[in-house]
């Protein structure tokens, strides 16, 4: 039961991650074209990297340490985007929940 809830939480965290990077991108660029490119391009880039290296069906099988490093960098980017967008408290809560979630994914051996 808890494993299923943890996987659901992980999916929600991934969606928040993509949304926060996109939100920042749409509000950071100067001009409509730059905002659209950043707001769509950055989350797409993060999703492609995530899908190729971190997801359970990743095509590239990397050692756990490398997967954790890539995941940390992507989540750190999302947290930085949230902070820069003015959502400091949410960014802190997001980071803590993401770390706890990752701890349980490793503890319960939910990632191959």
From TrEMBL:
InterPro entries: DUF2568 (IPR021214). Keywords: Membrane, Transmembrane, Transmembrane helix. The keyword Ion transport does not apply. The keyword Transmembrane applies. Pfam families: DUF2568. The chain crosses the membrane at residues 7-26, 32-50, 62-80, 86-105. This is DUF2568 domain-containing protein. It comes from Paenibacillus lautus (Bacillus lautus).
């Amino acid at each position: 039961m808890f494993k299923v809830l943890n996987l659901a939480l992980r999916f929600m965290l991934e969606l928040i991650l993509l949304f926060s990077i996109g939100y920042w991108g749409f509000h950071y660029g100067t001009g409509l074209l730059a905002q659209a490119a950043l707001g769509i391009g950055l989350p797409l880039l993060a999703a492609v990297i995530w899908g190729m290296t971190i997801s359970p069906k990743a095509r590239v099988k990397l050692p756990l340490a490398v997967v954790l490093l890539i995941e940390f960098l992507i989540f750190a980017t999302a947290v930085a985007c949230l902070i820069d967008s003015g959502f400091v408290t949410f960014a802190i809560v997001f980071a803590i929940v993401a770390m706890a979630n990752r701890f349980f994914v490793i503890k319960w051996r939910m990632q191959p």
